[in-house]
Specification:
single chain, alpha+beta, Double-stranded beta-helix, 24% strand
């Protein structure tokens, strides 16, 4: 199937047209999309309203799916699949949730710069967010390019960071927002994991900064010094020159690579209905990359 890829005006991101994501992807199409996301990090598909079944099938074609924080604290869901994450301010009865409910407070953590599931091994590879109902104002999603951020680091910083590791903890970002009602068992369900601060993307082979809201300390540094370093690196990585801001339309599906980007949602009126569904694949091959598809046909992407 032929489709086109048009780069955005930012350093990252591209718009893909000519595909119907409600239909199964051929292996060559899937491989071409993986090549496109390795280059652009974020792919935007307009006019792709998907059912729950279709979104799950699309995500599964790229690999096994992630449950994320549902492993820690399961809550009632409106969806048929545990692997569908409800990035919405809507309760299980279909009504706009009160702003002090766990659902809303938890989703506010999505407004922190983060990489999905960096707090576990394997972490996340691709995320796919589908827009059902969008806010009339605000509610954009921003993405920053961790590869370009590394390239722009002073050489002294690059030398200092080589071999350094940061600990990523699932509940660190929740604690920052005052969401600390977890049992000892839940706090221990996903213990901190260490990731190199400087990683090499397995597909593009570019070095990148792996930071974000789940990173809570630097191995070998005092807590205070490590957190200051992580804040400095995140501030550097999220400069406007490294950011693509996506303004949502109903039916949009945005797919991004968690290994090469951070993302965050932006503020919107919490009394206004906003409904998004996310699916996320696991990076089961880790730093080695990998291919979930057999390439039975030639890739067919056309760059515009």
């Amino acid at each position: 199937m032929h489709f086109s890829v048009k780069p955005s005006t930012a350093r990252l991101g591209a718009f893909v047209s000519g595909l119907d994501l409600s239909q199964p992807l051929l292996s060559g199409t899937r491989a071409a999309l993986e090549a496109a996301i390795a280059e652009h990090a974020v792919l935007v598909f307009r006019d792709q309203p998907l059912t729950q079944d279709q979104q799950i099938a699309l995500a599964r074609s790229f690999g096994p799916l992630d449950l994320g924080l549902k492993r820690v604290k399961k809550t009632a869901s409106r969806f048929r699949y545990d692997e569908l994450l409800d990035i919405s301010n809507v309760d299980v009865n279909g009504e706009v949730a009160a702003r002090n409910t766990r659902r809303v407070v938890s989703n506010l953590a999505n407004q922190l710069w983060h990489s999905d599931s960096s707090f576990q091994k394997p972490a996340a590879r691709y995320s796919m967010l589908s827009a059902i109902t969008v806010a009339s104002e605000g509610g954009d999603t921003e993405f920053c390019d961790l590869r370009a951020a590394y390239d722009a680091l002073p050489e002294a910083w690059k030398r200092e960071l080589e071999g350094r590791e940061a600990l990523h903890y699932a509940l660190h970002s929740r604690f920052v927002l005052g969401d600390d009602d977890y049992t000892d068992e839940q706090r221990a369900e996903l213990p901190p994991v260490a990731w190199p601060i400087v990683r090499t993307h397995p597909d593009s082979k570019r070095k990148l900064l792996f930071v974000g809201a789940h990173a809570c300390e630097v191995v070998g540094l005092t807590l205070a010094e490590g957190r200051m370093l992580l804040m400095d690196l995140q501030e550097h990585a999220t400069q406007r020159e490294f950011v693509y801001a996506h303004h949502w339309q109903p039916g949009d599906l945005v797919m991004w690579d968690n290994r090469s980007t951070l993302h965050r949602g932006r503020r919107y009126d919490l009394s206004e209905r906003r409904e998004m569904r996310r699916t996320t694949t696991l990076d089961v091959d880790g730093d080695a990359g990998g291919d979930h598809a057999t390439h039975a046909e030639e890739p067919s992407a056309q760059t515009a």
